[in-house]
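We modelled the chain as a single entity of 104 amino acids. Its sequence is:
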Amino acid sequence: MLKVIVHYLIVVLSVAVNIVLALAVTRFIKSRYPKLIDESNSNILLICSAAFLLWAGIGKLGWSIQTFGGHTPPEKLNMVIFWILSHIGTFLLFTHIWIKTFKK
């Protein structure tokens, strides 16, 4: 049970890091390249974030060689790919949200 709680705490921390990183990158882009902050680029970020998150989720669900422990090399690689795609998707999603917030 403790392992489950720790896992969810890691996820919360990961999302928080993505939120802060997206805020920093959005502020940097806004200060240096304000023309990049527009509606069409924001929509592209939203589409890309959805694509990465769906790619991660559907890819993880479709994995056919699962063991009880999840310690085989293919399962470890699957988990690494899932985390990378999830982080990219979350970062892009929050970048989109920060762009929308700064436009107001």
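As a brief sanity check on the tokenised model: Residues 2-32 form the longest helix (31 residues). The helical segments are 2-32, 39-61, 73-103.
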